[in-house]
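Quick start: read one record
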Amino acid sequence: MIIDCHGHYTTAPAELQTYRDAQVAHFEDPSNPAPSLKAISDDQIRESIENNQLKALRERGADMTIFSPKASAMAHHIGDEAVSKTWTRLNNDLIHRVVQLFPDNFVGVCQLPQSVGVPIENSIEELERCVNELGVVGCNLNPDPSGGMWSGRPLTDRSWYPFFEKLVELDIPAMIHVSGSCNDNFHATGAHYINADTTAFMQFIQGDLFTDFPDLRLIIPHGGGAVPYHWGRYRGLADMLKKPKLTEHIMKNVYFDTCVYHQPGIDLLFEVIDTDNILFASEMFGAVKGIDPETGHYFDDTKRYIEALDLPAADKAKVFEGNARRVYPRLDKLLKSKGL
């Protein structure tokens, strides 16, 4: 079985964005009409999935996607806590409908109603709802709700601890995933995403989060940002900061995905990072949707890159399936209940 751990509902019916535009307009000027989500039919959802993610999933030879709302649309920097709560709930409910319609191909991950200056524990209620009522197997955690301004505290700060305690209690992982950028210096997917991945890793080096939470599991997407390319730098910084080796300090709890869109990048990822810490992913359809003119294949057809590696079959099985089932135990339990 091949499990893609990183997919977003970027093809949701237009009614969702229409609602969002009205919601933001009403927040900015209450004299504008209050937003109302026009009904989205099951047929609309089917069409949006069958002609896009499901079609590509089948064509590329994968079986299942761990599916979450459109990351750039989480936009925690827009509106206030009430706006974010409403928007988040709508998106999570829509993901649940996708999973109900395509239970063999999609399993849900939720976004959180984070908001600038609002304690992260205020997101726990929605997380519990999504786990207990909607059956999600993980969540996306934004380390920078300010949208590129980095106005909050590092992930290792104790202000995050109530949420990490809940993740451990529920036995689910979080993917560290920012949203859109409101800072013109940082293109959302080309800079802000990669900056956040790299920043999160450095925060983990500086802190002692996993001493306090030895069972916490976090996924850093997009191949770990710049981390594999600068692995020597981070090993050296850990040594300078008198921290344990990265294999002990961080890599028992942190995982990278394979959203790296060329063969040399994948080659480097697998050369530097242990296969136990790599989960197959494509972020389909996300940051890069086009065809690579150098190969004639889609940039985000990451399965091709992994298959081209000279890896033992057992290691490929880990990357394609085993690691995801280990990092997402609720997914493993779900698959076992289906005899998979």
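The longest strand covers residues 3-9.
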